[in-house]
Amino acid sequence: MNARSDIEELRQEVRRCTRCRLSDNRTHAVPNAGDPDADFLFVGKMVGYQDDQVGQPYQGEAGKQLDDALDAVDLTREDIFLTNLTRCYPPESRDPKTDELDRCADYFERELRIVEPEVIVALGKLPAERLLGRSVEVEGEHGEVYTYSSLTYSCRLLVTYNVGAAMYDDSVRGVIADDLSNVV
Ligand code: SF4
């Protein structure tokens, strides 16, 4: 087995997953995307409505914000690995609940073991808090590079904004790209 076949197997598993209640109303489960040999693993909070419709992460305007931030540091989606803490769209875009996050966490741990990134890019407060195990204020900590450490893996972790925030706040757009330049 290699990274590509391992990740494809995991994607198929996610598409069939019914571990938590978020499977009840989804159109599609949305597995990870991108290069399983990438140096950069981007992790967001959850999938959006348009992601749910097509079964791919970061569609629509949020996806455009991501693409623009990547472009500013000479990266494309093909250069990175992209995933979320939860992989099924929550009703009315509510935040995922703790038990849903817990049930989906195993997929992230497996993704991490397969990809072995040099840097995790935490897109927003919830991914940063889950991975650092403490409260995080993105306004004060974006651009900071910390150490992610679990029993099986450690690497650098960059805190930045959820790209969805850039949809509503023009000032955040350039900030995400600036933060990325600290690790790219
Ligand atoms: S959110 Fe995660 S754990 Fe819940 S059903 Fe979807 S893939 Fe499974």
Summarize the SSE layout with pairings.
Layout: H1 3-16, E1 33-34, E2 40-44, H2 49-54, H3 60-72, E3 81-84, H4 98-115, E4 119-123, H5 125-132, H6 138-141, E5 145-149, E6 154-160, H7 165-168, H8 170-180
Helix pairs in contact: 1-4, 3-8
Q: What would you note in describing this structure?
A:
- This protein is of the alpha/beta class and 184 residues long.
- It has a single domain, classed as Uracil-DNA Glycosylase, subunit E.
- It is built from eight helices and six strands, in the order αββααβαβααββαα.
- Helix 3 packs across helix 8.
- It starts with a helix and ends with a helix.
- The model has no long low-confidence stretch (mean pLDDT 96).
- The structure holds iron/sulfur cluster (SF4).
- The site of iron/sulfur cluster has 14 residues, from helix 4.
- Iron/sulfur cluster (SF4) binds next to helix 4.
Count of distinct strands: 6
The total domain count is: 1
User: Element order, helices and strands?
Assistant: HEEHHEHEHHEEHH
Distance between the termini: 29 Å
Q: Which range best describes the helical content: under 10%, 10-25%, 25-40%, 40-55%, 55-70% or over 70%?
A: 40-55%
Order of strands across the widest beta sheet?
A: 1-3-2-4-6-5
* Average predicted confidence as pLDDT: 96
Pairing-aware structural class of the strands and helices? Answer: alpha/beta
Bound molecules: iron/sulfur cluster
Query: What's the helix count?
Result: 8
How much is the radius of gyration in Å? 15 Å
Largest sheet, in brief, is: 6 strands, mixed
The portion of residues forming beta strands comes to: 15-25%
Q: Which fold does the CATH topology refer to?
A: Uracil-DNA Glycosylase, subunit E
CATH superfamily: Uracil-DNA glycosylase-like domain
The CATH first-level class comes to Alpha Beta
Stretches where pLDDT is under 50 for at least 5 consecutive residues are none
Tell me, what's the shape? globular
CATH architectural group? 3-Layer(aba) Sandwich
